[in-house]
Automatic annotation (TrEMBL):
Keywords, alphabetical: ATP-binding, Nucleotide-binding
Protein source organism: Wenyingzhuangia marina
InterPro entries: AAA+_ATPase, ABC_transporter-like_ATP-bd, P-loop_NTPase
Stretches assigned to the ABC transporter domain: 2-227
SUPFAM superfamilies, per the entry: P-loop containing nucleoside triphosphate hydrolases
Pfam families: ABC_tran
UniProt cross-references to Gene3D superfamilies, sorted A to Z: P-loop containing nucleotide triphosphate hydrolases
GO MF: ATP binding; ATP hydrolysis activity
Protein name per Swiss-Prot or TrEMBL: ABC-2 type transport system ATP-binding protein
Amino acid sequence: MITIENLNFNHSKEKQLFQDLTLQLNSGNIVGLLGKNGAGKSTLLQLLSGLLSQKSGNIDINGFEPYDKNPNFLSDLYLVTDEPYVPNIKIKSFIKNFAPLYPNFDVEKLKNILIEFQLDENMKLDKISYGQRKKFIIAFALATNSKLLLLDEPTNGLDIPSKKIFRKVLIESINEDQLVMISTHQVKDIETIIDKIIVIDHGRITFNHDLYEIAEKLQFKKVPSIHNEDQVFYSEKCPEGYHIITPVNKNEETEVDMELLFNAINNNIAIHI
Ligand SMILES: Nc1ncnc2c1ncn2[C@@H]1O[C@H](COP(=O)(O)OP(=O)(O)OP(=O)(O)O)[C@@H](O)[C@H]1O
């Protein structure tokens, strides 16, 4: 669905951010795009949505080059930015004006998600909180049924119950034809819903694996002390002892602790998968 080949990009007057970046992503996945501040997550989402143009290299999304801004491409893509721009109108006017731009828009789905998020169609978008606006835009994005959903820090500003509802409505909403990319630092917010992790650092992809591969190859445990250091890829001290990442032993699978894994990758620990 997405093929990126030898992508080179820098913001004007800035040093090179992406250098020969190559990446292939298929539909049917919810991808967690992780990375430290300034790693290039938002820039990558802007390149994929055609807001920015690469300096060289190719981006192909279902046969479209994003920066060409073909209407058929734009009507099958939704980018939720961290600070979504919304006009000063009621939710119902927003739906009336913008839903027709998306041929697969599902009004019933939107209404159901608005109920889940406790939003009312008569609310004015400039009179609601940042978190409520964010929830509305997430609901709208899901209702477009776009093949590509790009969510930049979607859980920023959401309270704890709303984060749970976000995960629920996302999982219920998407199908195998869609690809969802969620950029975040809030690893815990998305660890139960993503099936692939991509980590970028200084514009380079430093980790790109499916969850099932990680669960098959690594174990995440809490131990009182560390005995065999050779067998431990990464450890962090905790009140009960240590959180550790080890290779899988005797085919015993554990739940992936994404925050621990992310910390290990950020500490340049070689994780063998
Ligand atoms: N409009 C811009 N003009 C110049 N430089 C920019 C612009 N936007 C981003 N950058 C720079 O590009 C790099 C990548 O920024 P980007 O916003 O993509 O990172 P990010 O991973 O999304 O960070 P964060 O997690 O803080 O949102 C940073 O060094 C940033 O300073």
